[in-house]
Amino acid sequence: MVPPVATYASPLDEPILQTKKNGTQVNSKASDEVLEDYEGGYRFAPIEEAQVSRAMIKRYFNMMYERAVSDVVIVGAGSAGLSCAYHLAKNRPDLKITIIEAGVAPGGGAWLGGQLMTPMVVRKPADRFLTEIGVPFEDEGNFVVVKHAALFTSTVLSKVLAMPNVVLMNATAVEDLIIRPDSKGVQRVSGVVTNWTLVALNHDTQSCMDPNVITAPVIVSATGHDGPMGAFSAKRLVSAGLLKELGNMRCLDMNRAEPAIVNGTREVVPGMIMTGMELSEHDGSNRMGPTFGAMMASGIKAAKEAIRVLESHEIVDGKVVA
After folding, report:
1. Is residue 267 part of a domain?
2. Structural domains of the chain, count
3. In the record, which positions carry 2,3-didehydroalanine (Cys) (predicted)?
């Protein structure tokens, strides 16, 4: 016997709460007075718990459905990834840009400066990006100082999320890459394999927790240097046979490190652009430590590279066909 199918009225179509007024049924949302009173009389509009669940579920899973095919996927929402998203979304508002961030809190290591101190140092000319997004700073000649790194990160994050063509899936890990031959038989990164981060961290404790996938013609990897989930794409390219070995990040030298990261930002294999500190692991370049200009400039260059790749290929349903 087939069990009955559960049906329900949409909360957007019919009111859940009703009261009687003069013998007539009325929507309590219209009859209950909402009041902003900070002297003890503050009253909220009424709500049902199910309405909260449905409001979140409808929007989140509609977003997942719509972004199963994206134009650009950015892996990592640190300073490089967010700078890339900003420049890309601003200059190509037609693109569907999807950011995947493993942490609950986006921003990577850009919430603080060096050794847990708060100021952020940015070498010129990367200060021009701070001016563009409206972050104030003190000018020290060859570099500028933002009073708190969180001021930069919160500003660029809020501007990115306000753009209608950008979505962010945080607490979501990229577990693998989609790699398949293109029209010429060349192996191409063609998407990402995703899962909730808490699931990705517990594959050793539970079995058969299969992932989801997002198809995109361009993947921008900005997962940072080696760490719990850092340098993920660089390491996966090695195990997938697309990169012989990691270059491994060299010791700190700010004057060598920052130009190497910005100038080295590129499509490292077909379909994947690498940006930020992940490049130091891929290429074997120096680390720069607590100076952040290269992260911003590398993100901007990654956006320019993504546009170049998109404009030089024929793309159908998220796949490069020619």
Report:
1. yes
2. 1
3. 208
The CATH number assigned to the domain holding 235 equals 3.50.50.60
| 10 in any annotated domain | no
180 is in an annotated binding site: no
21 or 313, higher pLDDT: 313
Can you tell me the mean pLDDT for 116-139? 98
Backbone φ, ψ for residue 227 (5° rounding): 180, -165
Lowest mean pLDDT among 27-41, 45-59, 198-212, 274-288: 27-41
Residue 107 lies in a domain: yes
39 is in an annotated binding site: no
Domain that holds residue 120: 59-314
Residue 109 annotated as binding site: yes
Q: Answer whether residue 19 is part of any domain.
A: no
User: What are 48-86's pLDDT values in tens digits?
Assistant: 999 999 999 999 999 999 999 999 999 999 999 999 999
Q: Tell me if 79 sits within 8 A of 255, measured CB to CB.
A: no
160 is in an annotated binding site: no
50 is in an annotated binding site: no
